[in-house]
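Chain A, query sequence.
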Amino acid sequence: MKLTEKEVRYVAGLANLSLSDEELGRMVHDLGGILEQMDRLAEIDTEGIEPMSQVLYDAGDETATLREDVERETLGSEAATANSALAANGYFKVPLVIER
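Chain A, predicted structure.
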């Protein structure tokens, strides 16, 4: 898939990024390469291959590092925000970091 400068500028705008002409050219090239790789991966025949539910976990492996999934009570807003510098109505309050 070939990307255009217009598409890269649009995505950069969504991410609130200002790209120089040099950066724009590099991003068109780099992002285009990533999309080409994804296209090649999509061509691989995966028919008959079972999906993996967890890449690094084998239930029969005694050294598996994942704990049992046990249901338990949730933490709750009050406890979660108890040590927060600023909280209100059960939510963390943070300073504005992005302005448009």
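The longest helix spans residues 21-42. The mean pLDDT is 87.
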